[in-house]
Specification:
Strand content: 35-45%
Number of domains: 1
Helix content: under 10%
Radius of gyration: 23 Å
Largest sheet: 6 strands, parallel
Order of helices and strands: EEEEEEEEEEEEEEEEEEHH
Length: 145
């Protein structure tokens, strides 16, 4: 009569640290958001976003605050500083008023951007150690040169 399925057999019950969060259209929030997974804003947020994954601001999304993340796609309106460790894309029709900091930047022709842009080394390059090879010259090589 009852099957032997446990709670872990149901896909909705498993905890996921990389799930996406959504602030839907028509939703208005005040406060800061911190997320380990992707986040998409289609509503209005008055506050900062600190994300260790990808941030997407939808075409109807409005953010009044700073954005920090691994990657970001901006289609809506952002007023604040955007700091991205990898790729920042300003899509057509977006409006950004604030400074940008990213390893890679892509701006479509119909995007509007007012502020300063700083290109920084990406996270992939930051983890590579700098190796410097030095050649030792013997006294014999010096004498024959």
């Amino acid at each position: 009569m009852f099957n032997a399925k446990t709670k872990s057999d149901f896909p909705g019950d498993a905890p996921s640290g990389t799930s996406a969060s959504l602030i839907g259209a028509g939703t208005s929030m005040k406060g800061d958001i911190t997320s380990n997974g992707d986040i998409r804003i289609d509503g209005t947020l008055s506050g900062n976003i600190n994300c260790s994954a990808k941030v997407i601001i939808g075409a109807n999304g409005v953010v009044e605050g700073d954005i920090s993340g691994q990657q970001a796609d901006i289609l809506g309106k952002v007023t604040g500083t955007i700091k991205v460790k990898d790729l920042l894309q300003l899509k057509g029709g977006c409006e950004v008023n604030g400074n940008l900091s990213a390893a890679k930047l892509q701006i479509e022709p119909s995007a509007t951007f007012n502020g300063e842009c700083h290109m920084v080394a990406g996270s992939a390059n930051a983890s590579k150690p700098v190796i410097e090879k030095k050649k030792e010259i013997s006294s014999f090589e010096l004498a024959t040169s």
